[in-house]
Amino acid sequence: MPSKPSHKTANKAPSPVKKPAAPSVEDLLRQLSNAVGVSGDEGAVRRLILEAIQGSVDDVNVDAMGNVLAVKKGTGRGERLLAAAHMDEVGFMITAVDSDGSLRFEIVGGIDERGLLGKQVVVGPKRLPGIIGAMPVHLVPADQRSIVIRVARMRIDIGAESEATAKKLVKPGDRAGFATEFAVAGPSFRGKALDDRLGCAALVELLRGPAYSFDLHAAFTVQEEVGLRGAKVAAFAADPQAAFVLDCTPANDLPHSDEEKENTQYNTRLGLGPAIYVADRATISDQRLIAHLQRTAEAAGLPYQLRQPGGGGTDAGAIHLSREGVPSVSLSVPGRYLHSPLSLARVDDWRHAIALMRAAFKAWTPAVLKRKG
Ligand SMILES: [Zn+2]
To answer: Residues near 128 by Cβ (< 8 Å), separated by ≥ 6?
Structure first.
């Protein structure tokens, strides 16, 4: 990621990822995507982030819930802006070990159980490889092939031959995540948990480089996927004058069907730039912050799109209601197939999200929050 994308590079066709000598933000993204950090067990992701921000921040601490709260001091008089990205991902929690050594589990966060059979997972802190077992298709009676198998009937099989063996390896409460290797495929990233490791890596990058005019409080939050829980206390601690949330939003821009001329159901579309939120189910974005992002993008020649209002939510849902209220807006990289074993996002949408946030921070003045009426 070039730290200062210019007008010239901003609108170019997708280009291959460049690797500078120092550990690059792309390398960090790869590590973050491959790490498993299911809600409430974000340690593997937290360790990577703590290491990555060393030397770029003036203060860092891990709070009682596990949020990473870092401060990059500004050159001004102590105005505080919060930028947040969530560390956790959707996944599974082991609930019991069966007598045959297979593992019962529950879903953590929002996952469509119709897509789970036959998927590979890694279980527990030792990352034991496992599979969500499925009956071979040869044996499934024809009249049962259209029936949805509920997650309560599924098991994760780690190859243990008995309950005793499995219990030595796994305990109830251990998390499991999808076993997907991150890759760059042409203009796209492929990987699990791009929601929201794209935001985490972007926030790390925004902490690098020279100071801004304000103190940047960065919150890498826990438990977003189960109800914006970490962000609630992170926002209280930071007590900011405004907040930006960096996330990854479902694109739903799949190819249109034979009956439709075009897909009109999209939420965002890949390749059109980062998506500025106007409203979602949890938040109505602050109009002054929307305008600041739009003005900044237009001045810098950076692409952006407005996310269609409607469902979903980000950490902004908790942050904007903190204390006496915090003007908030979300900026997301569009991603396809979120909350599934493999998501897909465009490299350039992510680069442009970082470039837009950096430019918006550089152009920030307290006047952004002046109300006209
Ligand atoms: Zn997210």
So the answer is: 122, 158, 169, 170
